[in-house]
Amino acid sequence: MRNIASQAFSKGFTLIELMIAVAIMGILVSVAYPAYTDFVQRSNRTEGQRELLRIAGLMEQYFLDNRTYTKDLKNLGYSASTVTTENGYYSIEATAGDANVFTLTATAKGSQASDTSCKTMTLTNTGAKTPSPSTYDCWE
After folding, report:
1. Is the dihedral of CA 35, 38, 43, 49 positive or negative?
2. Is the dihedral of CA 87, 91, 96, 102 positive or negative?
3. Which of 41, 51, 131, 135 gives the lowest tally of CB atoms within 10 Å of its CB?
């Protein structure tokens, strides 16, 4: 004959076991979430980089056709002089020092603005890639 008392204690989880599981999940989340958000921000940077490189190619084509760079992105076929990337993570504008020099600047906006490592990224006609703040390499 089976003991009824032993069957009652073998079902389910105790409160202590449940609290241990919750504590372990909390520790895992507290470690994983910052790493995840950092990964997402680094992934979103590629959108700004891709658009900077695409606009730089258009600037070079404009230079070949007109023998000068433009600081107005409307001349490259955009509807405004400041371009917002596809998902809205960066705003890109061009500055031209003279006819033979340009600088493209991508500024983080929206949810990407919390990326303190790379608030802005610049690309020049010489191919120089500069992050801001300059203590971090955004172009890795």
Report:
1. negative
2. negative
3. 135
For residue 28 the two structure tokens come to 């895992």
- Give the global pTM: 0.76
- What is the pLDDT tens value at each position of the chain, 140 positions in all? 555 555 555 677 788 989 999 999 999 999 999 889 888 888 899 999 999 999 999 999 999 999 999 888 999 998 888 999 999 999 999 987 778 899 999 999 988 988 888 888 999 999 888 888 776 677 77
Query: What is the 3 state secondary structure string of 19-64?
Result: HHHHHHHHHHHHHHHHHHHHHHHHHHHHHHHHHHHHHHHHHHHHHH
3-state secondary structure of 18: helix
Bridge partners (DSSP) of residue 119 are none
